[in-house]
Write a sequence for this structure.
């Protein structure tokens, strides 16, 4: 008897919506609708998908005339700061033929927190037409899904699509089975020491070779860290680092001088007059080469005229013979004459 009485008291406080309820502090708000749309006492009141209270009472009032259904809601006190004066309390139906609840919308609300016994704004109320419209949309989506399933089943029963061919084409099915068998044979081949992976796993010499390579790389890394070898000196030797830094600075200085037009290279890059002279000199050399190739001028005649080449050759030969004769018999070519006056 005592337990039953306690349960009744607890239910009374739960549904009463007093300032101090059985499950904690609550406050009361009201909203007015054109019709209740199946809403019941005890229906949940939600905010952003979270149940923050329930409907305490529903009654018909004379004012306001256009919205005579007064719904009183008991809300937990800790959510009072989340309910604003311009929040909207909409009546929604869960599913097509499900129960009805109050859903408070704060998306466009920017007012102050609502006071105890305050009145919330209301939105639309679902009616039978809305429920039927939702039911029709759900039916259309279901029909579309069933149509896609039927097409898929039809393709599976024919040779259309990869899965349909795999099911109905014996050649493709045998090929897939052969591929699966080939992959299934790989672990056995590896365990038997066949193939590159199998040799690496089973062949001790290959494993030892890999260990030797690892030891060599470890030795190289140790040598580099200790400053041995070219790379080690490059990383550890301060003098080499300093030389590299000075070389980099000198190269930067040369680059700066070139960009500013200093030096021969800088003049070639930046000085337009020098560029023009260099270009003219190149053209003159090209013209000289063309003339020489055509046999024009002394150098061209010398290169192209055989008779002039022969004369030059004879002249050189006679000059050599004369020089040889003078060295051997100088008195033959030199005569001294003395006269007395």
């Amino acid at each position: 008897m005592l337990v039953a009485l306690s349960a009744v008291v607890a239910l009374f406080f739960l549904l009463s919506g007093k300032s101090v309820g059985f499950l904690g502090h609550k406050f009361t708000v009201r909203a007015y609708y054109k019709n209740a749309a199946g809403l019941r006492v005890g229906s949940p009141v939600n905010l952003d998908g979270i149940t923050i209270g329930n409907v305490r009472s529903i009654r018909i009032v004379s004012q306001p005339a256009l919205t005579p259904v007064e719904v009183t809601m008991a809300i937990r006190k800790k959510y009072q700061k989340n309910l604003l004066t311009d929040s909207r309390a909409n009546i929604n139906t869960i599913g097509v033929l499900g129960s009805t609840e109050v859903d408070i919308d704060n998306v466009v609300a920017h007012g102050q927190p609502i006071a105890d016994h305050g009145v919330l704004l209301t939105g639309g109320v679902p009616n039978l037409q809305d429920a039927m419209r939702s039911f029709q949309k759900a039916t259309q989506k279901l029909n579309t899904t069933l149509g896609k399933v039927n097409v898929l089943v039809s393709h599976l029963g024919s040779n259309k699509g990869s899965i349909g061919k795999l099911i109905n084409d014996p050649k493709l099915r045998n090929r897939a089975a052969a591929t699966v068998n080939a992959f299934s044979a790989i672990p056995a081949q590896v365990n038997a020491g066949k193939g590159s992976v199998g040799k690496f796993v089973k062949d001790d010499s290959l494993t030892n070779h890999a260990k030797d390579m690892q030891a060599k790389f470890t030795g190289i890394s140790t040598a580099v860290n200790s400053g041995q070898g070219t790379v080690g000196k490059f990383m550890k030797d301060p003098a080499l680092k300093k030389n590299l830094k000075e070389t980099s600075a000198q190269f930067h200085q040369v680059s700066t001088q070139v960009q500013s037009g200093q030096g021969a290279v800088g003049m070639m890059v930046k000085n337009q007059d020098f560029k023009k002279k260099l270009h003219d000199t190149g053209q003159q050399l090209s013209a000289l080469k063309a003339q020489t190739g055509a046999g024009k001028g002394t150098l061209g005649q010398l290169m192209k005229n055989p008779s002039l080449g022969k004369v030059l050759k004879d002249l050189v030969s006679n000059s050599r013979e004369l020089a040889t004769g003078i060295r051997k018999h100088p008195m033959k070519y030199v005569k001294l004459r003395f006269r007395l006056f």
Q: What stands out?
A: Residues 132-166 form one domain. The first strand starts at residue 20 and ends at 21.
